[in-house]
């Protein structure tokens, strides 16, 4: 059976994340979204917006095998793109090992902490996420060395 092209791309995940943060607003605090509000409507961190983007782009639960394998690679790729963009360049292994975190945890922490800079706005958050997605806006070129190309 030939591999079907997935409609899930890093750009789709990041665009959905930017749309979400634009809709609900940027939140600074100890939770991923403002306590006491429903998760879909509560102001959120960049990390939560990215997670919402992932949920928006995932394949249907009824689909098995290849689309899910591709999806997991695309999710990892979108996290790399966004965290590298926030970092101003590739995140070095030295960075996460110094603070004794896994690569995934360190990259998620970068997303969580981005909004804590005083004066950061919802507009800036959405623009930053869209900028991370923009080099890969077409469905043809999503390549990062070692990540799936769809």
Describe the structure.
The chain is an all-alpha fold and 150 residues long. Helix content is 53%, strand content 0%. The chain is built from 6 helices and no strands. The chain has helices at 10-24, 46-57, 66-87, 93-98, 103-114, 122-133. Helix 3 crosses helix 5 (103-114). The longest helix has 22 residues, at 66-87. The radius of gyration is 15 Å and the shape is globular.
Name the features:
150 residues, mainly alpha, 53% helix, disordered C terminus
Secondary structure elements and their pairing?
Layout: H1 10-24, H2 46-57, H3 66-87, H4 93-98, H5 103-114, H6 122-133
Helix pairs in contact: 1-2, 1-3, 1-6, 2-5, 3-5, 3-6
Q: Give the tally of β-strands.
A: 0
Uncertain spans: 1-6, 137-150
Structural category: mainly alpha
| Helix content bin | 40-55%
The main pleated sheet reads as: none
Strand content: under 5%
Number of distinct helices: 6
End-to-end Cα distance, whole Å, is 17 Å
Average residue-wise pLDDT: 79
What radius of gyration results from the CA coordinates? 15 Å
Order of helices and strands: HHHHHH
Q: What best-fitting shape do the alpha-carbon axes yield?
A: globular
